[in-house]
Specification:
The chain has 286 residues and is of the alpha/beta class. The chain is built from 11 helices and 9 strands. Helix 8 (181-189) links the parallel strand 7 and strand 8 (205-209). Mean pLDDT is 94; it is low at 281-286.
Length: 286
């Protein structure tokens, strides 16, 4: 059994000196993060495709079993709405190639306006994507969560392409009024959709958004501990990303989630021991 956990990024100003050594160079922070978590969301690729040399650096800093779930660029998903942008997509796929087995899934995050009437475009898009990659789709249109027929239609399209439906669980965030600037910002920007726990493939992916208060975050993920435990017993290999509005403690929270699942499944492989934040790169004279 293998559960992977991670965060929305691998570097954060509030992690320096706490989870990551304070003086790490930009090119070493992923390596340090990978000692805390064994998966990461690739959100930055939504805005710009990195140079292939940058992606080669990501591969060097992580073990082959590390999981990247990388977002397909915005021009493809939001500007062309899956009906164009093939040159952007080709450049993106070429840039991601050095990740090899670390490229766990290519993530198709769709805008909130992408509804049931657009599912045909999604089906055509998935059918023309290159085989050999795993694909995961996140939808935000309310109809997919409120209309059973729309949900079944989407599930049929995803199942036909071997793609997963990625839930973004924000229910805990919206359960009570925000108490911080970060939570107020999240209230404005994050989707309000019901929790969805149905897996379509052997590699389900969950995005969970808690609160800035650690215990409220942990209380809110209890249903996911049960769901993920059941998935593991079924032979699935899930990936869970833990977010909070400020993400200040996200690496520790991701490990805590893993620990809670492992408490009920002692056979679950443990996470690696993290690099201590006090560890600094050696000083040199030149």
């Amino acid at each position: 059994m293998r559960l992977h956990v991670g965060c929305a990024m691998w570097t954060h100003a509030r992690w320096q000196g706490r989870f990551l050594p304070a003086r790490l160079s930009q090119g070493e922070r992923l390596r340090a993060y990978a000692s805390w978590c064994d998966a990461v969301e690739g959100n930055t690729t939504f805005y710009a495709t990195p140079a292939r040399e940058t992606v080669e650096s990501w591969a060097r800093q992580t073990a082959p079993g590390f999981r990247f779930v990388v977002k397909i660029p915005k021009p493809v998903t939001h500007e062309h709405r899956l009906t164009g942008g093939d040159d952007v997509l080709g450049t993106f796929l070429d840039a991601m190639e050095p990740l090899g087995p670390r490229l766990h899934a290519l993530w198709v995050q769709l805008p909130g306006s992408f509804g049931p009437s657009d599912v045909g475009a999604l089906a055509a898009f998935l059918n023309r994507l290159p085989r050999g990659h795993r694909y995961a789709v996140e939808v935000r249109h309310p109809a997919f969560f409120a209309d059973e027929r729309a949900a079944h239609l989407l599930e049929r399209v995803l199942a036909g392409a071997g793609a997963e439906w990625v839930p973004f669980d924000t229910t805990v965030l919206f359960r009570s009024p925000p108490t911080s600037d970060a939570e107020r910002d999240a209230w404005v920007k994050k989707p309000r959709v019901p929790r969805r726990t149905r897996a379509l493939t052997g590699h389900p992916i969950v995005r969970y958004l808690g609160r800035d208060a650690e215990e409220l975050t942990a209380e809110g993920w209890r249903p996911w501990v049960d769901t993920v435990t059941e998935w593991l017993r079924e032979g699935r290999s899930p990936t869970v990303f833990v977010h909070t509005p400020d993400n200040a403690d996200a690496p520790a929270l991701a490990r805590r989630f893993h620990d809670e699942v492992r408490a009920g499944l002692p056979g679950l492989a443990p996470l690696p021991e993290p690099v201590a934040a006090a560890e600094e790169p050696p000083l040199t004279l030149f």
